[in-house]
Every structure is written in structure tokens, then in C-alpha cells.
């Protein structure tokens, strides 16, 4: 849990950020604490863990690059500075622009989210030597599948997992493996993508422009995965402030608005990938739930700690952990998995 006294001590040697009042925000995420610096227009993002398994300094460098690159779209907070790891801040912190806005309201804010994603994806693909330190998936489907395979390795260790859910997920994994093999022989759209685009990660400014404020997972990969993550059931019902169950028609409208904003050329290259990568994203989300259900129950999380990840409740508010546990249990019900599959099939009739 965040210790404000230790944080104040850690910031004392930082001329730009030390000596200011500290106003922590409600704990809403497993990966970061957020602390306002009132009067400065800045927010501290303090990692609890590295979700990519990086060492502290590398994790900060990665996240700083994410903020710098996404800010060029006009839909991400400005990076103000990097505070190196040290006593009281073992994983360091980023100081970023505090966005004055409200949580996204669904479905009315779906067009704003679509336009924000289109603007980020329009930044294009820089030369290969300009992409590090961000991950660069030359084959975006294979890159997504690698994460899914790792998470699916927990299927046999999830003692409470319904057998039908396990069967459904293994069947989807078999489909994903076959699709990835086929996709490897085709040119795939690649862009700067955000990876974690559930609606709770957006704020909407008073002028209606959506800003994505959680950027530590950006990479070069498949834009269709961002679109799926913004609108699947596991995303739209994750965050209490933006929670909504979308109709298939509302989801189709989101995709159509994105394709209009992206323009004819981008839309044409993306269309064949929209539905299969929605299935890939759903499988990624559901296998993550399996991983979390195993890891957060372990008395000793040696595997997670060695990878720089720790899903332990001790790093987050108890209410947040209870919320995540409730969402994971709902998402891993066979009925939920089946309903997500039916939604994908119905969406195919509208796009």
C-alpha cells in the first residue's frame, strides 16, 4: 500500500515535485498508484509492478516512451518527467499531465473513443531503429498469441475453474493457433497500439475529446486488438465508473465510426482482421483472468515476483482486489464465455 510519508521523503530531492502537497487518487488499478500534485497540473504514476516483467529502470523507460509517443496524437497526457527508482520509490515514478475530464459514459462516448484510437493509429509505423524500447511485433497475431499461450499455461493450475470453461478456452486456443499459422503468410496492419484500451482507461475532456490515460503497455502491433479491447464484455463491464453492457448494434456503430475516422485506405486493410482479432483479444482477456485467479490466491508468489509481477492484495486496496475477484469470477462462467462467442458471430453480420 502507498505510504505518503515515504513518498514525500523520496520526492524531497526533486526540485520540480518535492515539497508539494500529495493527494492520492482512489486505488483503481493493479499496476499503479496515482497521486495528484495539487496546483501543478501534474499527476504521479507510481508503478506497483511491471506488467511486462521489466526491471524498475527499464519499466520506467518503457512507460516514458509510451507517453511521449502517444501524446503526439493529441489523445494522451504529456510526459513531464521521470523520477528514478530509489528509497521510498523502489520502482520510481512518472510525472504526467493531469487530464481534466470525466469517465467515459457508454454508449454515448463510443464515437469519441473511436476517434481517439483512430488518431493514435494514424501516427503510423516509424523506422525500425526508432521503435525501441517499445515492443515490436513483426507478426502481430503471433505476438498476441505468445502472451495468450503463457496465460493459458495456467489452465491446468486453476483449481476452481469450471470444466466447461476450460474446455471452451482450450477450443478457442486451438482455433487461435490455426489462425496464427494462416495469418503468418499474409501482410498484417501494424501501428502504434495501446493494448489496454478498456473504457475505464479513458477520460473525456469538456470539449468531448477522449484521452487515454493508461499507457504503459503501448507497442507496435495490431490496431484491431485495440478496437476489440475497447468494446468486449470483459472491458465494458470492468470499471465501475464506465460500466455498461453494449448491444451488438452499438459495438458495430463504434467500429463504423473508427473506420470512417481512419479513412478508406486504412479501413480497407483493417476490415479482414476485425473479427478474428476480436476473438484473439477475448481469449487474451479470459486467459488473463485464469492467470490472475491462480496467482492472487498463492501464498507465495515466487513465479510472479521473479518476473517483476505481483498480483498480491498487499499492493492494492482490499476493495479493488474484491472487485477484480468478482469480475474474474463472472468472466470465467461458461455462460459468459459462450455469450462473448455469440456476440462475435452476430457482429460479423453487421460489419
TrEMBL record:
Record SUPFAM superfamilies: Protein kinase-like (PK-like)
Pfam families, per the entry: APH (PF01636)
Domain Aminoglycoside phosphotransferase, chain residue ranges per copy: 42-271
Source organism superkingdom: Bacteria
An annotated Gene Ontology molecular function: kinase activity
Annotated keywords: Kinase, Transferase
Protein name in the entry: Predicted kinase, aminoglycoside phosphotransferase (APT) family
